[in-house]
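User: Hi! I'm working on a homework problem where we have to compare a predicted structure to a textbook description. Could you give me the structure for the chain below?
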Amino acid sequence: MVVTANPVATAAAVEMLRGGGSAVDAAVAAQMVLNLVEPQSSGIGGGVFLLAYDGARRRLTAYDGRETAPAAAGPELFLDAGGRPLEFHTAAVGGRAVGVPGVLRALELAHRSHGRLPWAVLFEPAIRLAEGGFPVSRRLHGLLTQERHLPGASARGYFYDQHGRPHPAGHVLRNPEFAAVLRKVAAEGADAFHHGEIARDIVAAVRNHPTNPGYLSEADLAGYRAVERQPVCARYRLWRVCGMPPPSSGGSTVLAILGLLERFDLRQVRPGSAFAAHLFAEAGRIAYADRDFFIADPDFVSIPLPALLDPAYLAARSRAIRFERSGGRAQPGLVGEKDRAAGDSPERPATSHLSIVDADGNAVAMTSSIEDAFGSRVMVRGFLLNNQLTDFSFRPADGGRQVANGVEPGKRPRSSMAPTMVFDAADRLQIVAGSPGGSRIINYVAQTLVALLDWDLPADASLAMAHFGSRNGPTELERGTGAEALAPTLRALGHEVQVLDMTSGLHVIRRSATVAGGQVWIGAADPRREGSAAGY
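Assistant: Happy to help. Predicted C-alpha coordinates:
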Protein backbone atom coordinates (compact mmCIF):
# COMPACT_ATOMS: atom_id res chain seq x y z
CA MET A 1 0.00 0.00 0.00
CA VAL A 2 1.26 3.46 -0.96
CA VAL A 3 -0.10 6.90 -0.03
CA THR A 4 1.66 10.01 -1.35
CA ALA A 5 0.79 13.62 -2.09
CA ASN A 6 0.24 13.11 -5.82
CA PRO A 7 -1.17 10.23 -7.91
CA VAL A 8 1.87 10.30 -10.21
CA ALA A 9 4.22 9.83 -7.25
CA THR A 10 1.98 7.08 -5.87
CA ALA A 11 2.18 5.29 -9.24
CA ALA A 12 5.98 5.51 -9.23
CA ALA A 13 6.14 3.95 -5.77
CA VAL A 14 3.77 1.14 -6.77
CA GLU A 15 5.92 0.51 -9.84
CA MET A 16 8.91 -0.12 -7.57
CA LEU A 17 6.92 -2.45 -5.31
CA ARG A 18 5.60 -4.46 -8.27
CA GLY A 19 9.19 -4.77 -9.47
CA GLY A 20 10.24 -6.43 -6.23
CA GLY A 21 11.36 -3.28 -4.47
CA SER A 22 11.16 -2.55 -0.77
CA ALA A 23 9.24 0.21 0.98
CA VAL A 24 12.43 2.31 1.03
CA ASP A 25 12.94 1.75 -2.71
CA ALA A 26 9.39 2.96 -3.31
CA ALA A 27 9.94 5.99 -1.08
CA VAL A 28 13.04 7.05 -3.03
CA ALA A 29 11.21 6.79 -6.35
CA ALA A 30 8.21 8.70 -5.01
CA GLN A 31 10.37 11.50 -3.59
CA MET A 32 12.12 12.05 -6.91
CA VAL A 33 8.74 12.32 -8.65
CA LEU A 34 7.36 14.63 -5.96
CA ASN A 35 10.27 16.98 -6.69
CA LEU A 36 8.70 17.38 -10.13
CA VAL A 37 4.95 17.29 -9.53
CA GLU A 38 4.89 18.98 -6.11
CA PRO A 39 8.00 21.23 -6.26
CA GLN A 40 6.52 23.75 -3.83
CA SER A 41 6.73 21.25 -0.99
CA SER A 42 9.83 19.05 -1.10
CA GLY A 43 12.73 17.82 -3.17
CA ILE A 44 16.46 17.18 -3.32
CA GLY A 45 17.12 20.80 -2.40
CA GLY A 46 15.59 20.22 1.05
CA GLY A 47 15.55 17.84 3.98
CA VAL A 48 13.80 14.70 5.20
CA PHE A 49 12.92 12.63 8.25
CA LEU A 50 12.34 8.94 7.57
CA LEU A 51 11.20 6.03 9.74
CA ALA A 52 12.02 2.65 8.22
CA TYR A 53 10.56 -0.55 9.67
CA ASP A 54 12.20 -3.90 8.96
CA GLY A 55 9.32 -6.37 9.24
CA ALA A 56 11.47 -9.50 9.41
CA ARG A 57 13.62 -8.21 12.26
CA ARG A 58 10.87 -6.05 13.77
CA ARG A 59 13.35 -3.22 13.93
CA LEU A 60 12.54 0.48 13.51
CA THR A 61 15.21 2.98 12.46
CA ALA A 62 15.06 6.76 12.16
CA TYR A 63 17.03 8.54 9.42
CA ASP A 64 17.74 12.23 9.89
CA GLY A 65 18.31 14.12 6.65
CA ARG A 66 17.57 17.52 8.15
CA GLU A 67 19.41 20.51 6.67
CA THR A 68 22.32 22.03 8.60
CA ALA A 69 23.39 25.65 9.01
CA PRO A 70 26.47 26.65 7.01
CA ALA A 71 29.75 26.99 8.91
CA ALA A 72 29.65 30.77 8.35
CA ALA A 73 26.12 31.22 9.79
CA GLY A 74 25.93 32.80 13.24
CA PRO A 75 23.29 33.55 15.88
CA GLU A 76 22.43 36.95 14.37
CA LEU A 77 21.62 35.50 10.94
CA PHE A 78 18.01 36.72 11.05
CA LEU A 79 18.45 40.02 12.88
CA ASP A 80 18.55 43.41 11.16
CA ALA A 81 21.15 46.09 11.81
CA GLY A 82 19.20 47.21 14.88
CA GLY A 83 19.08 43.70 16.35
CA ARG A 84 15.41 43.17 15.50
CA PRO A 85 14.11 39.95 13.87
CA LEU A 86 13.65 40.20 10.12
CA GLU A 87 10.23 39.94 8.50
CA PHE A 88 9.74 36.33 7.42
CA HIS A 89 9.97 36.69 3.65
CA THR A 90 12.84 39.17 3.95
CA ALA A 91 14.71 36.32 5.61
CA ALA A 92 13.34 33.42 3.57
CA VAL A 93 13.54 34.59 -0.04
CA GLY A 94 17.05 34.36 -1.44
CA GLY A 95 20.23 32.70 -0.24
CA ARG A 96 20.32 33.72 3.43
CA ALA A 97 18.04 30.93 4.73
CA VAL A 98 19.35 28.08 2.57
CA GLY A 99 20.60 25.18 4.68
CA VAL A 100 22.76 22.30 3.48
CA PRO A 101 20.29 19.89 1.78
CA GLY A 102 20.06 16.38 3.21
CA VAL A 103 17.46 14.43 1.22
CA LEU A 104 19.80 12.47 -1.02
CA ARG A 105 22.27 11.59 1.74
CA ALA A 106 19.45 10.31 3.97
CA LEU A 107 17.75 8.31 1.23
CA GLU A 108 21.08 6.81 0.20
CA LEU A 109 21.82 5.84 3.81
CA ALA A 110 18.40 4.22 4.22
CA HIS A 111 18.72 2.43 0.87
CA ARG A 112 22.01 0.80 1.92
CA SER A 113 20.23 -0.97 4.77
CA HIS A 114 16.73 -1.45 3.38
CA GLY A 115 16.92 -1.29 -0.41
CA ARG A 116 16.46 -4.23 -2.76
CA LEU A 117 16.49 -2.68 -6.20
CA PRO A 118 19.61 -1.03 -7.65
CA TRP A 119 19.88 2.67 -6.73
CA ALA A 120 19.75 3.77 -10.38
CA VAL A 121 16.44 1.98 -11.01
CA LEU A 122 14.72 4.15 -8.42
CA PHE A 123 15.27 7.27 -10.53
CA GLU A 124 13.75 5.93 -13.75
CA PRO A 125 10.15 7.12 -13.20
CA ALA A 126 11.22 10.68 -12.38
CA ILE A 127 13.66 10.81 -15.32
CA ARG A 128 10.89 9.67 -17.69
CA LEU A 129 8.56 12.37 -16.38
CA ALA A 130 11.18 15.11 -16.38
CA GLU A 131 12.07 14.41 -20.02
CA GLY A 132 8.66 13.42 -21.37
CA GLY A 133 6.60 15.87 -19.36
CA PHE A 134 3.90 15.78 -16.71
CA PRO A 135 0.70 17.80 -16.21
CA VAL A 136 0.63 20.78 -13.86
CA SER A 137 -1.81 19.90 -11.08
CA ARG A 138 -4.62 22.13 -9.92
CA ARG A 139 -2.93 22.62 -6.57
CA LEU A 140 0.38 23.65 -8.11
CA HIS A 141 -1.39 26.08 -10.44
CA GLY A 142 -3.35 27.58 -7.56
CA LEU A 143 -0.23 28.11 -5.47
CA LEU A 144 1.59 29.68 -8.43
CA THR A 145 -1.34 32.06 -8.85
CA GLN A 146 -1.03 33.18 -5.22
CA GLU A 147 2.77 33.30 -5.14
CA ARG A 148 4.27 36.79 -4.75
CA HIS A 149 7.99 36.06 -4.61
CA LEU A 150 8.62 33.44 -7.29
CA PRO A 151 7.74 35.38 -10.47
CA GLY A 152 10.86 37.54 -10.15
CA ALA A 153 13.13 34.64 -9.31
CA SER A 154 15.21 32.31 -11.46
CA ALA A 155 12.27 29.92 -11.64
CA ARG A 156 10.13 32.37 -13.61
CA GLY A 157 10.78 30.80 -17.00
CA TYR A 158 9.89 27.35 -15.73
CA PHE A 159 6.65 27.99 -13.86
CA TYR A 160 5.26 30.95 -15.88
CA ASP A 161 4.64 31.69 -19.54
CA GLN A 162 6.18 34.55 -21.52
CA HIS A 163 3.47 36.90 -20.22
CA GLY A 164 4.19 36.10 -16.57
CA ARG A 165 1.08 33.98 -16.13
CA PRO A 166 1.36 30.66 -14.27
CA HIS A 167 0.99 27.62 -16.46
CA PRO A 168 -2.61 26.33 -16.23
CA ALA A 169 -3.62 23.02 -14.73
CA GLY A 170 -3.01 20.31 -17.31
CA HIS A 171 -0.15 22.15 -19.02
CA VAL A 172 2.62 19.64 -19.79
CA LEU A 173 5.79 20.73 -18.03
CA ARG A 174 9.22 19.34 -18.92
CA ASN A 175 12.39 19.66 -16.88
CA PRO A 176 15.42 18.37 -18.84
CA GLU A 177 17.84 20.11 -16.47
CA PHE A 178 16.48 18.14 -13.54
CA ALA A 179 16.53 14.94 -15.60
CA ALA A 180 20.27 15.46 -16.14
CA VAL A 181 20.79 15.91 -12.40
CA LEU A 182 18.84 12.73 -11.68
CA ARG A 183 20.84 10.77 -14.25
CA LYS A 184 24.07 11.88 -12.62
CA VAL A 185 22.89 11.06 -9.09
CA ALA A 186 21.49 7.71 -10.29
CA ALA A 187 24.90 6.80 -11.73
CA GLU A 188 27.19 8.26 -9.05
CA GLY A 189 25.10 8.40 -5.87
CA ALA A 190 24.63 11.38 -3.57
CA ASP A 191 28.29 12.34 -4.01
CA ALA A 192 27.31 13.75 -7.42
CA PHE A 193 25.13 16.29 -5.62
CA HIS A 194 27.42 17.14 -2.72
CA HIS A 195 30.63 17.47 -4.75
CA GLY A 196 31.57 18.81 -8.16
CA GLU A 197 29.64 20.88 -10.65
CA ILE A 198 26.17 20.57 -9.08
CA ALA A 199 27.53 21.65 -5.68
CA ARG A 200 29.36 24.58 -7.29
CA ASP A 201 26.17 25.75 -8.99
CA ILE A 202 24.21 25.53 -5.72
CA VAL A 203 26.82 27.57 -3.87
CA ALA A 204 27.02 30.17 -6.64
CA ALA A 205 23.22 30.62 -6.67
CA VAL A 206 23.14 31.08 -2.88
CA ARG A 207 26.15 33.34 -2.45
CA ASN A 208 25.48 35.45 -5.55
CA HIS A 209 21.80 36.08 -4.94
CA PRO A 210 21.23 39.69 -6.02
CA THR A 211 19.25 40.88 -2.97
CA ASN A 212 19.73 38.36 -0.16
CA PRO A 213 22.94 36.34 -0.47
CA GLY A 214 23.67 33.44 1.87
CA TYR A 215 26.65 31.69 3.42
CA LEU A 216 26.57 28.17 1.97
CA SER A 217 29.95 26.83 0.83
CA GLU A 218 31.21 23.83 -1.14
CA ALA A 219 32.81 22.58 2.07
CA ASP A 220 29.40 22.66 3.77
CA LEU A 221 27.92 20.49 1.03
CA ALA A 222 30.87 18.11 0.97
CA GLY A 223 30.85 17.69 4.73
CA TYR A 224 27.12 16.96 5.16
CA ARG A 225 26.22 13.64 6.75
CA ALA A 226 22.80 12.08 7.31
CA VAL A 227 22.37 10.57 10.76
CA GLU A 228 20.86 7.27 11.86
CA ARG A 229 19.01 7.86 15.14
CA GLN A 230 16.99 5.89 17.66
CA PRO A 231 13.24 6.50 17.25
CA VAL A 232 11.36 7.94 20.21
CA CYS A 233 8.63 5.58 21.43
CA ALA A 234 6.13 5.47 24.27
CA ARG A 235 3.08 3.50 25.31
CA TYR A 236 -0.38 4.94 24.73
CA ARG A 237 -3.02 2.70 26.26
CA LEU A 238 -2.60 -0.67 24.47
CA TRP A 239 -0.26 0.59 21.77
CA ARG A 240 3.36 1.56 21.28
CA VAL A 241 3.63 4.79 19.31
CA CYS A 242 6.95 5.68 17.68
CA GLY A 243 8.13 8.85 15.98
CA MET A 244 11.11 10.91 14.95
CA PRO A 245 13.49 12.04 17.72
CA PRO A 246 15.11 15.51 17.93
CA PRO A 247 16.00 17.64 16.09
CA SER A 248 12.39 17.05 15.14
CA SER A 249 9.98 17.92 17.92
CA GLY A 250 7.27 15.97 16.13
CA GLY A 251 7.70 12.56 17.69
CA SER A 252 8.17 13.69 21.29
CA THR A 253 5.38 16.29 21.20
CA VAL A 254 2.85 13.90 19.66
CA LEU A 255 3.74 11.43 22.43
CA ALA A 256 3.41 14.17 25.05
CA ILE A 257 -0.09 15.11 23.85
CA LEU A 258 -1.15 11.47 23.94
CA GLY A 259 0.36 11.02 27.40
CA LEU A 260 -1.45 14.09 28.69
CA LEU A 261 -4.77 12.77 27.33
CA GLU A 262 -4.35 9.22 28.60
CA ARG A 263 -6.12 9.78 31.91
CA PHE A 264 -9.31 10.74 30.08
CA ASP A 265 -11.63 8.04 28.74
CA LEU A 266 -11.83 9.49 25.26
CA ARG A 267 -14.06 6.64 24.08
CA GLN A 268 -16.82 8.39 26.02
CA VAL A 269 -16.12 11.76 24.36
CA ARG A 270 -17.96 12.48 21.15
CA PRO A 271 -15.57 13.01 18.20
CA GLY A 272 -15.65 16.59 16.98
CA SER A 273 -17.42 17.89 20.09
CA ALA A 274 -16.54 21.05 21.97
CA PHE A 275 -15.36 18.95 24.91
CA ALA A 276 -13.05 16.95 22.64
CA ALA A 277 -11.63 20.20 21.24
CA HIS A 278 -11.23 21.60 24.77
CA LEU A 279 -9.28 18.59 26.05
CA PHE A 280 -7.13 18.41 22.93
CA ALA A 281 -6.30 22.12 22.96
CA GLU A 282 -5.40 22.04 26.66
CA ALA A 283 -3.07 19.08 26.14
CA GLY A 284 -1.53 20.87 23.17
CA ARG A 285 -0.73 23.97 25.22
CA ILE A 286 1.25 21.97 27.75
CA ALA A 287 3.06 19.82 25.19
CA TYR A 288 4.02 22.78 22.99
CA ALA A 289 5.27 24.73 26.02
CA ASP A 290 7.83 22.00 26.70
CA ARG A 291 8.59 21.67 22.99
CA ASP A 292 9.35 25.36 22.53
CA PHE A 293 11.58 25.46 25.59
CA PHE A 294 13.55 22.20 25.40
CA ILE A 295 13.63 20.68 21.90
CA ALA A 296 16.43 21.50 19.46
CA ASP A 297 19.38 19.75 17.79
CA PRO A 298 20.55 17.13 20.34
CA ASP A 299 24.14 17.47 19.11
CA PHE A 300 24.14 21.06 20.40
CA VAL A 301 21.64 21.12 23.26
CA SER A 302 21.01 18.87 26.24
CA ILE A 303 17.40 17.63 26.02
CA PRO A 304 15.79 15.94 29.04
CA LEU A 305 13.68 13.74 26.75
CA PRO A 306 13.18 10.78 29.13
CA ALA A 307 11.95 13.19 31.81
CA LEU A 308 9.63 15.01 29.40
CA LEU A 309 8.00 11.72 28.36
CA ASP A 310 7.97 10.06 31.76
CA PRO A 311 4.39 8.85 32.43
CA ALA A 312 4.44 10.21 35.98
CA TYR A 313 5.58 13.63 34.74
CA LEU A 314 2.86 13.74 32.07
CA ALA A 315 0.22 12.55 34.54
CA ALA A 316 1.20 15.38 36.89
CA ARG A 317 1.13 17.93 34.06
CA SER A 318 -2.24 16.57 32.92
CA ARG A 319 -3.81 17.49 36.27
CA ALA A 320 -3.63 21.12 35.12
CA ILE A 321 -6.28 20.31 32.49
CA ARG A 322 -9.63 21.34 33.95
CA PHE A 323 -13.00 20.33 32.58
CA GLU A 324 -14.68 23.68 33.19
CA ARG A 325 -12.05 26.23 32.14
CA SER A 326 -9.09 26.73 29.82
CA GLY A 327 -5.79 27.09 31.61
CA GLY A 328 -4.54 29.70 29.16
CA ARG A 329 -0.94 29.89 28.10
CA ALA A 330 1.13 27.06 29.64
CA GLN A 331 4.64 27.30 31.04
CA PRO A 332 7.34 24.68 30.52
CA GLY A 333 7.57 21.98 33.15
CA LEU A 334 10.06 21.92 35.99
CA VAL A 335 12.55 19.57 34.38
CA GLY A 336 15.95 20.02 32.78
CA GLU A 337 17.89 23.21 32.38
CA LYS A 338 16.24 26.52 33.22
CA ASP A 339 19.03 28.83 32.08
CA ARG A 340 17.55 29.10 28.61
CA ALA A 341 14.56 30.84 27.07
CA ALA A 342 11.67 29.52 25.00
CA GLY A 343 12.14 30.10 21.30
CA ASP A 344 9.73 30.62 18.47
CA SER A 345 10.21 29.98 14.76
CA PRO A 346 7.79 30.70 11.90
CA GLU A 347 7.52 27.14 10.56
CA ARG A 348 5.61 27.19 7.30
CA PRO A 349 3.34 24.39 6.06
CA ALA A 350 4.90 23.57 2.64
CA THR A 351 5.96 19.98 3.28
CA SER A 352 5.09 16.50 1.97
CA HIS A 353 4.46 13.15 3.62
CA LEU A 354 4.25 9.60 2.30
CA SER A 355 3.35 6.29 3.92
CA ILE A 356 4.32 2.94 2.37
CA VAL A 357 4.06 -0.75 3.33
CA ASP A 358 5.58 -3.40 1.06
CA ALA A 359 4.57 -7.04 0.50
CA ASP A 360 6.89 -8.29 3.25
CA GLY A 361 5.55 -5.94 5.91
CA ASN A 362 8.41 -3.46 5.72
CA ALA A 363 7.24 0.13 6.03
CA VAL A 364 8.27 3.75 5.59
CA ALA A 365 6.80 6.90 7.11
CA MET A 366 8.63 9.83 5.54
CA THR A 367 8.12 13.57 5.80
CA SER A 368 10.20 15.88 3.61
CA SER A 369 10.27 19.62 3.07
CA ILE A 370 11.84 22.70 1.53
CA GLU A 371 10.03 24.77 4.24
CA ASP A 372 7.98 27.68 2.85
CA ALA A 373 6.05 27.13 -0.38
CA PHE A 374 8.70 27.08 -3.13
CA GLY A 375 11.39 27.34 -0.45
CA SER A 376 13.97 30.06 -0.97
CA ARG A 377 12.64 30.60 -4.54
CA VAL A 378 16.21 29.92 -5.71
CA MET A 379 16.21 27.36 -8.51
CA VAL A 380 19.34 25.45 -9.53
CA ARG A 381 19.42 22.97 -12.41
CA GLY A 382 15.66 22.49 -12.29
CA PHE A 383 15.14 22.05 -8.53
CA LEU A 384 14.37 24.53 -5.77
CA LEU A 385 16.53 25.14 -2.70
CA ASN A 386 15.11 25.20 0.80
CA ASN A 387 14.74 28.14 3.18
CA GLN A 388 14.89 25.76 6.12
CA LEU A 389 17.14 27.91 8.31
CA THR A 390 14.07 30.02 9.10
CA ASP A 391 12.99 27.11 11.30
CA PHE A 392 15.59 28.36 13.78
CA SER A 393 14.45 30.93 16.30
CA PHE A 394 15.13 34.37 14.82
CA ARG A 395 15.99 35.60 18.32
CA PRO A 396 19.12 33.85 19.65
CA ALA A 397 18.44 34.95 23.23
CA ASP A 398 15.73 36.44 25.44
CA GLY A 399 16.47 38.36 28.61
CA GLY A 400 20.09 37.25 28.53
CA ARG A 401 19.12 33.57 28.32
CA GLN A 402 20.01 31.54 25.24
CA VAL A 403 17.27 29.97 23.11
CA ALA A 404 17.79 26.23 22.54
CA ASN A 405 16.83 26.51 18.86
CA GLY A 406 19.12 29.41 17.99
CA VAL A 407 21.33 29.44 14.89
CA GLU A 408 24.78 27.87 15.20
CA PRO A 409 27.23 26.63 12.53
CA GLY A 410 26.49 23.04 11.56
CA LYS A 411 23.32 22.90 13.66
CA ARG A 412 20.04 21.40 12.47
CA PRO A 413 16.96 23.58 12.99
CA ARG A 414 14.12 22.20 15.05
CA SER A 415 11.29 20.68 13.05
CA SER A 416 7.71 19.59 13.72
CA MET A 417 7.71 16.83 11.10
CA ALA A 418 6.15 13.76 12.67
CA PRO A 419 6.37 10.55 10.64
CA THR A 420 4.74 8.01 12.94
CA MET A 421 4.23 4.27 13.32
CA VAL A 422 1.97 2.48 15.79
CA PHE A 423 2.37 -1.10 17.05
CA ASP A 424 -0.13 -3.23 18.95
CA ALA A 425 0.39 -5.16 22.20
CA ALA A 426 1.91 -8.04 20.22
CA ASP A 427 4.34 -5.59 18.59
CA ARG A 428 2.71 -5.89 15.15
CA LEU A 429 2.71 -2.80 12.96
CA GLN A 430 -0.78 -1.29 12.83
CA ILE A 431 -0.52 2.31 11.54
CA VAL A 432 1.85 4.31 9.32
CA ALA A 433 1.05 8.03 9.35
CA GLY A 434 2.23 11.62 9.00
CA SER A 435 1.35 15.00 7.54
CA PRO A 436 2.69 18.29 6.21
CA GLY A 437 1.55 21.48 7.90
CA GLY A 438 4.39 23.36 9.64
CA SER A 439 4.17 23.40 13.42
CA ARG A 440 0.52 22.25 13.20
CA ILE A 441 1.76 18.85 12.01
CA ILE A 442 1.97 17.72 15.64
CA ASN A 443 -1.70 18.44 16.31
CA TYR A 444 -2.79 16.94 12.99
CA VAL A 445 -1.01 13.66 13.69
CA ALA A 446 -2.00 13.45 17.36
CA GLN A 447 -5.67 14.13 16.56
CA THR A 448 -5.62 11.47 13.84
CA LEU A 449 -4.14 8.91 16.24
CA VAL A 450 -6.88 9.66 18.77
CA ALA A 451 -9.49 9.25 16.02
CA LEU A 452 -8.01 5.90 14.97
CA LEU A 453 -7.13 4.44 18.37
CA ASP A 454 -9.70 5.88 20.77
CA TRP A 455 -12.67 6.51 18.51
CA ASP A 456 -11.92 3.62 16.15
CA LEU A 457 -12.88 5.68 13.12
CA PRO A 458 -12.06 4.37 9.64
CA ALA A 459 -8.87 5.80 8.13
CA ASP A 460 -10.67 8.04 5.63
CA ALA A 461 -13.10 9.38 8.24
CA SER A 462 -10.20 10.12 10.59
CA LEU A 463 -8.53 12.26 7.93
CA ALA A 464 -11.75 14.07 7.01
CA MET A 465 -12.36 15.20 10.61
CA ALA A 466 -12.36 18.95 11.23
CA HIS A 467 -9.13 20.10 12.85
CA PHE A 468 -8.83 21.81 16.21
CA GLY A 469 -6.00 22.37 18.66
CA SER A 470 -3.62 24.81 20.27
CA ARG A 471 0.10 25.46 19.89
CA ASN A 472 0.16 27.19 23.28
CA GLY A 473 -1.56 30.22 21.88
CA PRO A 474 -5.13 30.64 20.62
CA THR A 475 -7.32 27.58 20.19
CA GLU A 476 -7.43 27.07 16.43
CA LEU A 477 -10.53 25.83 14.61
CA GLU A 478 -10.58 24.83 10.96
CA ARG A 479 -12.43 27.27 8.74
CA GLY A 480 -15.28 25.92 6.63
CA THR A 481 -15.88 22.86 8.81
CA GLY A 482 -18.08 21.86 11.73
CA ALA A 483 -15.30 23.02 14.07
CA GLU A 484 -16.38 26.62 13.49
CA ALA A 485 -19.61 25.96 15.39
CA LEU A 486 -17.58 25.06 18.49
CA ALA A 487 -16.29 28.62 18.91
CA PRO A 488 -19.02 30.00 21.24
CA THR A 489 -18.78 27.07 23.65
CA LEU A 490 -15.00 27.20 23.71
CA ARG A 491 -15.00 30.97 24.30
CA ALA A 492 -17.37 30.39 27.23
CA LEU A 493 -14.73 28.03 28.62
CA GLY A 494 -12.14 30.81 28.43
CA HIS A 495 -10.48 29.92 25.14
CA GLU A 496 -9.18 32.62 22.84
CA VAL A 497 -10.43 31.25 19.50
CA GLN A 498 -9.10 31.68 15.98
CA VAL A 499 -10.88 30.28 12.92
CA LEU A 500 -8.48 29.74 10.05
CA ASP A 501 -7.52 27.47 7.17
CA MET A 502 -5.75 24.33 8.38
CA THR A 503 -4.61 22.52 5.25
CA SER A 504 -3.16 19.26 6.46
CA GLY A 505 -2.01 16.53 4.07
CA LEU A 506 -2.35 13.46 6.24
CA HIS A 507 -1.51 10.09 4.69
CA VAL A 508 -2.43 7.00 6.70
CA ILE A 509 -2.07 3.27 6.24
CA ARG A 510 -3.87 1.06 8.76
CA ARG A 511 -3.96 -2.70 9.21
CA SER A 512 -7.51 -4.06 9.10
CA ALA A 513 -9.04 -7.50 9.57
CA THR A 514 -11.12 -8.98 6.74
CA VAL A 515 -14.41 -10.84 7.07
CA ALA A 516 -12.55 -14.05 6.19
CA GLY A 517 -10.15 -13.55 9.08
CA GLY A 518 -7.21 -12.25 7.07
CA GLN A 519 -5.34 -8.95 7.27
CA VAL A 520 -5.24 -6.14 4.72
CA TRP A 521 -3.75 -2.66 4.58
CA ILE A 522 -6.18 0.24 4.17
CA GLY A 523 -4.71 3.47 2.78
CA ALA A 524 -6.24 6.94 2.94
CA ALA A 525 -5.21 10.39 1.73
CA ASP A 526 -6.28 13.71 3.20
CA PRO A 527 -9.24 15.11 1.21
CA ARG A 528 -7.83 18.64 1.59
CA ARG A 529 -5.08 17.99 -0.97
CA GLU A 530 -4.50 15.91 -4.10
CA GLY A 531 -2.90 12.83 -2.54
CA SER A 532 -3.83 9.29 -3.47
CA ALA A 533 -3.61 5.77 -2.09
CA ALA A 534 -2.96 2.65 -4.17
CA GLY A 535 -2.07 -0.94 -3.44
CA TYR A 536 -1.96 -4.33 -5.05
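For your comparison, note the following. Residues 2-49+65-228+371-403 form one domain. The chain has two domains: 2-49+65-228+371-403, 230-326+416-534. Good luck with the assignment!
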